[in-house]
Amino acid sequence: MVSLRCTSAHHSLLGSPTCLARPRRGCTVVRAAVAVEAGAQPKVSLIRIGTRGSPLALAQAHETRDKLKAAHSELAEEGAVEIVIIKTTGDMILDKPLADIGGKGLFTKEIDDALLQGRIDIAVHSMKDVPTYLPEGTILPCNLPREDVRDAFICLTANSLAELPAGSVVGSASLRRQSQILYRYPSLKVVNFRGNVQTRLRKLKEGDVHATMLALAGLKRLNMAENATSVLSVEEMLPAVAQGAIGIACRSNDDKMMEYLSSLNHEDTRLAVACEREFLAVLDGNCRTPIAAYAYRDQDGNCSFRGLLASPDGSTVYETSRSGSYSFDDMVAMGKDAGYELKAKAGPGFFDSLQ
Fold it and tell me: Where is the Porphobilinogen deaminase C-terminal domain (predicted)?
């Protein structure tokens, strides 16, 4: 995956983790794609949406499709929007921890490739899966309204992590969750637990682990929130960067798609995600680095930010917070400053030990 870093004070549209799309005038005519169904006449699809094939990914793609149809009458026509399922590396390798597979973009690279090759027109991603630097030739001008950022605790025998007996096994593929669990409850054991939401719930019921944790946003989008035993506050479990946010990418030279996507963008979400991703970019986070962050609009209308960096075993945790105006420049500066603070606190030896 190509990484482009900003070279101007205004942030490159292609390279910045906080890229700000500016739709241009003189939009080109959208190129039609043809979707053929068995036994039916070919239909012209104006937009092909690329997505992973998990139930959650499809729910997010359907939400995107429905919002596009509601906002643009020409897209409400039968067959105007097509959903294209693409299998990613992260979907295909399920028997290893994400950190052991290596590389960034485990759940996005193949979708990005399809976008650049013109096989799809837009790509729908869970923002927490998107690397901090986008591939050259793509842009991410749209975030849909953010869902609940908190984590759900799911267990058949206890109501919370605190109630689990010593030695209980918690299943999680997330080092962010693992480090925060072990920091507060060192008597628990955390094991790798991969698979989609349905698979993890089935493994829990079969007794593979005593408990697990999932993003509440995913459960809500799947209409499965009733599976949550309890919900952890952000004070108990700081979320992943951009947790609960959906991002939609297109080619950077596709004015028509940029126009469509700009109509769906939720600015409060975009700015919060930009702040958190700037924090992540400074720390150069990967699947071996437990990092958490949350930016939100507080009661006074300002931005409040919290960031966390930890060792996987929870023995070391660095935290920081910031507050400032809810504006793009100030929030990006906040995330960057917080990242540099924790990077300095941890020191180079901390990051070397994670490799």
Answer: 271-343
